Amino acid sequence: MRKKTIIEIISAFFILLFAYTAFSKLLLQDVFKYSLGMSPLIAPIADLIAWAIPALELGICAFLFFPKTRKVGLYSTLATMIIFTLYISYMIMFTPKLPCSCGGVIRYMTWRQHLVFNIACICLAVVGTRLNRQIEKPQQVSMTPAMS
């Protein structure tokens, strides 16, 4: 399979994932806000986070959708998944009994299942960013003027 096709599949996966979770968080805003409010780490800014996360996820979807902004989208995806994974790790270590504040069917995962899912998503995002970098390098080399 061509690298470009793999990048498009990875981007499509994350677009679906982020759009799905963002819309489910927005549709169940009160539940999402309540769950965030129970987290000792996020409680003070739960109202802000309840709107910021879905907005971030939808913004990343837009970056991933367009080829010209896909690089930013892939790096944003990687950074976001790392942050979400660090949060989940914190929750597992210090407050494992809280409900998950994620959207959609993902909220029905246990904290440990969610951690494994997120680690797999990080690996997928790394593959996407590396393949994207490999595709960009030949184009950058061919654009440089030849020296005589």
Give the tags:
148 residues; mainly alpha
Topology, pairings included?
Blueprint: H1 3-27, H2 29-38, H3 46-65, H4 70-94, H5 111-143
Structural commentary:
- It is a single chain.
- This protein is mainly alpha-helical.
- The chain has helices spanning 3-27, 29-38, 46-65, 70-94, 111-143.
- The protein has five helices and no strands.
- The longest helix is centred in the C-terminal third of the chain and has 33 residues, at 111-143.
Tell me the structural class. mainly alpha
Q: N-to-C terminal Cα separation, in Å? A: 37 Å
Number of strands: 0
What is the oligomer described by this structure?
A: single chain
Arithmetic mean pLDDT: 89
Strand percentage, roughly? under 5%
List the helices and strands in order: HHHHH
The largest pleated sheet is described as:
none
Q: Helix share of residues?
A: over 70%
User: Runs with pLDDT <50, length 5+?
Assistant: none
Q: Rg, please?
A: 18 Å
